[in-house]
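Hi Q.,

Before the meeting this afternoon, I wanted you to have the C2E prediction in hand. No need to reply - just skim if you have a minute. The sequence and ligand are here:
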Amino acid sequence: MNVDTALQGPEMIHLHGTQAVAFRVLIVASDTIERMIFARCVEMLGWTAETASGLDDATAKFAARPHNVAVIDLRMEPRECAILLRCLSRDRFDPAMIFATGTDDRAHPAALEVAHEVGLRVAGILPRPIDPYRLHGLLLAGSTHFSREPRGNFPWPTARELEDALRGEEIHAEYQPKTDLITGEVVGVEALARWHSPTLGCIPPGRFIPVAEQSDLIGRLTFRVLEDAVAACAKLRQIRPDCSVSVNISPFVLSDPLLLPTVETILARNKLPPRALIAEITETALLTSMPAVADVLHRLTINGVRVSMDGFGTGHASLQSLLRMPFTELKIHRSFVGVCRTDPDAWKLVRATISMARELGLNVVAEGVETEDVSDRLRDVGCDMGQGWYFGRPMQDDAMLRWLLPNEPHGRLQRALMVAQLMPGEPHQAVAAAE
Ligand code: C2E
Ligand code: MG
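Predicted structure with the ligand bound:
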């Protein structure tokens, strides 16, 4: 797809698909050398970089052609920065911001505040001295959270609302089963954060995780989910003694010094062996300060926690990171699995990934398994585990416990309801398929 076609309208941009993604990045920085470094990082991803030295130049370039991501040097005059953000927020492409911090510490909270006020998404903060790995990771984060919906249809929650929600215990985890494709047994669950707000309704993680990451709330949110997940796993292990729980760990939490002690404390408090916990790390995180990430992952594994590479196929992780980091599991992103029956190229990629993972001694989990047919195909090519609506949707911990009980009527009923969603109009077959 070429850039011109991509810019005809948001519907032309393919995300999480197998098609190439053409992104345009606007770099606003006064320093010529920095503009060149930023532009090189963007071009390494195969995207188009445009540079501007100040407000007038940036607004003119932006008016001529919208951009998907903007990298803004916060050393610019605060008033000019605010004008620029307001101008960017009027774009229908919903551009993500990356702020390169200035020498003045007050610049970055002020820019975040304006961005929130005008409803702009912030992919992250880039501290000086500039680390190209981190910029690379933020560019990917900015692109993968890219939204196709007009902002007005589903407003971004503010950091204040999220903080209140954490304080008011509105955020909890739901659990989705991970199933062994040969035995059909549930071998683990993934904890997925859920926010049920009495005022805003149910907000999907794709909407509040980025807000948490931009506002330093991601540590609290992760520890909240971790606390729930480990306690739920301790209960699940009374029914399935080997059951594990997977928790998504954002790249921003990997650099939090509280991560390792908190994991240790929560496991000890719930008397859960570290092996029962799997930390899911997205591919994007691996580009962010690679040596530091490797160090944290090694320390987690030394303590016995297992580490999974999440969403494989969407984040451009290098093969080197697969070899150097202590992964025990690789999860293939659902965008490849979901289309594997209809897209022969996606299916080739799925098979190649499974065979590579096996060569490296990693367990493979396919995400987004929605039908029996896909589950069978994956099993036949050596995929170890599946996760997806075919096996079970995310559920609250007590529903998951009931679901796991053998011959428990709720389990059969829920399975029938889930299969019925995939076989509309055929309730009897759905119940039979679920039995
Ligand atoms: P993920 O880690 O890849 O989680 C799997 C996502 O796929 C979940 O979306 C799940 O509901 C969805 N899913 C599962 N089976 C199917 C299926 O068969 N078909 C389709 N189409 N989708 C399926 P969800 O819950 O909306 O979460 C989205 C993402 O948000 C997660 O992707 C994860 O990256 C992030 N997330 C969720 N909870 C947390 C959290 O506690 N911490 C962090 N850092 N990220 C989280
Ligand atoms: Mg995950």
